[in-house]
Automatic annotation (TrEMBL):
<dbReference type="Pfam" id="PF02219">
    <property type="entry name" value="MTHFR"/>
</dbReference>
<dbReference type="InterPro" id="IPR029041">
    <property type="entry name" value="FAD-linked_oxidoreductase-like"/>
</dbReference>
<comment type="pathway">
    <text>One-carbon metabolism; tetrahydrofolate interconversion.</text>
</comment>
<comment type="similarity">
    <text>Belongs to the methylenetetrahydrofolate reductase family.</text>
</comment>
<dbReference type="GO" id="GO:0006555">
    <property type="term" value="P:methionine metabolic process"/>
</dbReference>
<keyword id="KW-0285">Flavoprotein</keyword>
<protein>
    <recommendedName>
        <fullName>Methylenetetrahydrofolate reductase</fullName>
    </recommendedName>
</protein>
<dbReference type="GO" id="GO:0035999">
    <property type="term" value="P:tetrahydrofolate interconversion"/>
</dbReference>
<keyword id="KW-0274">FAD</keyword>
<dbReference type="InterPro" id="IPR003171">
    <property type="entry name" value="Mehydrof_redctse-like"/>
</dbReference>
<keyword id="KW-0560">Oxidoreductase</keyword>
<dbReference type="GO" id="GO:0004489">
    <property type="term" value="F:methylenetetrahydrofolate reductase [NAD(P)H] activity"/>
</dbReference>
Amino acid sequence: MEAGCPKRMEFGPCGGVRPDGQCEMRPGACAFDDVVPWAGPAPARRPGRWQNSGPVVLTDFSCAPFDRGDVAATAAILAPACDAVLVGEHQNKPDFPPTLMGSLLLDAGVAPWITLSCRDRNRVVLEQELRGLRSIGVDTVLCVTGDGRGYDVRPDVTQTFDLDGPRLVSLAASVGVTPAVPETPTAPPVHARPARLVEKQRAGADVAVLNHVPYPAMIADFMAAARSAGLSIPVIAAVAVFTDSVSAAVLQGLPGLELDHAVTEQVLTATDPVAAGIAAAVAEARELLSIEGVAGVNVSGLASASGAHIGAEIKAEVGRRIRQEAQ
C-alpha cells in the first residue's frame, strides 16, 4: 500500500488525479510519483466472445434507480443498436446490486458489462458479486478502483477501498469472468498512462475502455505509445454523445475529461441540436475506429437532459449509424 494514498492503493495512480496532479480525495499531490508495476500473478487470457465480431458498440446504460420496469424499457430501446451496455456505478445514485442488475438486463435481452467498484465493497463482497455474475452468465465486468465519495454525498457512509482496480482485475480473472478496465489518457501522469494500461493487462485485463478525450488524435497517440509498450488487448474508445448543455456538462464533470470546444459550440448552437449531436458522435466514432488497436466504441453520456428514454433513443440512433457505416 502506498503511504498517504487515501484509496489504499498498491498499484496506482488512479484515474482521478486532477489536471494539476492533485489527489481527488484530499489536499496535496497524488501519492504516486509513477506507475507501480504489477507484481501479482499473471492470469491466463480469457478472450470475450465479442472479439470475434466487427467493431464493438458498447452503450452507456442509464435508467430510473430501483425500477425493474424501467430497466426493461430502456434495455428494449438500446438492445437492437449495440453489442452490450455498460452499467456504471455512481457514488450519488445507488441502484440494484450488480448481480440483480445483470440478471434483469440479461432477461431483457441485452448483454451487460457491469461495473464493480472497490469504494463500497470489501474483497469478500467483491468476490461474491463476481461469482454471482459469472453464475448468471454475465461475461464481462469493468473493474475500477472507484472515485472518492464527495464530502457532501452520504457523509455517514464509509469508503472501503479494500482492493484497487488492478487487484480486482486479478480477482475477476481468477473467478473466470472477462475483466475490462478503464483508463483516462488525459489524467496525470499523462506520459505514463499507456504504461499503466499495460500493467492492467499484466494483471489479467482482457479489454480496455478509455474515457473520452477532446480529439481523436489524442487516442491515436495514446494507442501508439501503449502498443509500443506491449499492449495487445483490444481497446474500446469513448464517443461523447450530447445534445444540450446539461448532457455536455455531465461529460465534463470528472477530473481530466473535456470536450472539443468547437464541436460543442457547433452542436449546442445548431438549429437541430439533436441531429447535430448524433452526427458529431458518428463522425467521432468513424475517426476512432480508424485507429489501429481500437476495436470498438463506447457510446457515452446521458445524451439528453429530457430523460433517460430520450437519451437512450439518441444513443441507439448513434449505435445504428455506426453499425451501418461498418457494414
